[in-house]
UniProtKB/TrEMBL annotation:
This is SDR family NAD(P)-dependent oxidoreductase. InterPro entries: NAD(P)-bd_dom_sf, SDR_fam. It comes from the Bacteria. Pfam families: adh_short (PF00106).
Length: 280
């Protein structure tokens, strides 16, 4: 964490959940923190609290799905604080529904935020980070879902597989260029946040039921956002590629996926999931 102290952090989706907790922890670690989110009132409130606690924070309204908005975020950050040491492309939305029933808008929004948002963050910030020539860090938030499959979460799961593949290739590109930028992919397990409550879609009974189940699961089994941040940030600072909130769960998902691919298993519903969703 000492490598982060004194540097500048930019965290997207910092108005809630994991992003908010990462922003608070980065500030506590001695970073100057830029909080970016579409939820202006929430980032304003969090930034004000960080400053009241003696930290340095700036709230900037930004939509990660909009390249111009991310370029503006990069310019505002540079003007305010200079070079960026840590970029966390954390903003994400959950979307529930059958693939063919979700609206074109919900599809575009999900892929726009979850995939293009990460790409836009890298396009806006990486050139200056590389040019600065200093050790810096880019962390892209996927999910353990990047190593799994799940019906009625298709746009979300698809987007997280994409973030994982993007991050793997980005790590190789940094190596190819011998750039001092460490790339990490964050694969959180359950964290108790508003993500399912705010989810898009959920217009059908099965998805509504699934949303309820997932909200209950996060409330019962999810760790707090603060705990998640305290596990995530040291791994990013250490330069780890695979960053988990629950290393055992990540390994179990990876092993399950690897075995399914090795065996060329066709996708099949786990019996408990089928019973639960088909009961609806
Ligand atoms: N909570 C979990 O269990 C969990 C598990 C795995 C992965 N994740 C991932 O972690 C990340 C954070 O999720 P969370 O659970 O803290 O969710 P959250 O809903 O609490 O916070 C997400 C934040 O992103 C912001 N946001 C949404 N669209 C945006 C946009 N276009 N531009 C900028 N900001 C935008 C929201 O306003 C919100 O403040 C997401 O990428 C999510 O997919 C979460």
């Amino acid at each position: 964490m000492a490598t982060l102290a004194g540097g500048v952090a930019v965290i997207t989706g910092a108005g809630s959940g994991i992003g908010e907790a990462l922003a608070r922890l980065a500030a506590k670690t001695g970073m100057q923190v830029v909080l970016a989110d579409v939820a202006t009132a929430r980032i304003d409130a969090v930034a004000a609290q960080i400053v009241a606690d003696g930290g340095t924070a700036l709230a900037v309204t930004a939509d990660v799905s909009d390249p111009a908005s991310m370029d503006a975020l990069a310019a505002t950050t540079r003007d305010a604080f200079g070079d960026v040491r840590l970029l966390v492309n954390n903003a994400g939305v959950e979307t529930l529904g059958f693939a063919w029933e979700l609206s074109a808008e919900d599809w575009a929004r999900t892929l726009g935020v979850n995939i293009q948002g990460v790409v836009n963050g890298v396009r806006a910030f990486a050139p200056a980070m590389i040019a600065a020539g200093e050790q810096a860090f880019i962390a892209n938030t996927a999910s353990v879902g990047a190593l799994g499959i799940m019906p009625v979460q298709t746009p979300y799961i698809m987007s997280k597989h994409a973030v994982l593949a993007f991050s793997e290739c980005l790590r190789l590109e940094m190596e190819l260029k011998q750039a001092p930028i460490s790339v990490s992919v964050v694969l959180p397990g359950p964290v108790h946040t508003r993500i399912f409550t705010d989810s898009l879609g959920a217009g059908d009974a099965v998805s509504q039921y699934h949303r309820q189940q997932m909200e209950g699961m996060l409330a019962a089994n999810g760790i707090s956002s603060a705990e998640a941040a305290s596990r995530i940030l040291p791994q990013v600072a250490a330069g780890d590629f695979w960053v988990s909130t629950d290393a055992e769960m990540t390994r179990a998902y990876a092993a399950g996926r690897a075995q399914a691919l090795l065996d060329l298993q066709p996708p099949a519903l786990a019996p408990e999931l089928a019973a639960s969703l088909q009961a609806e």
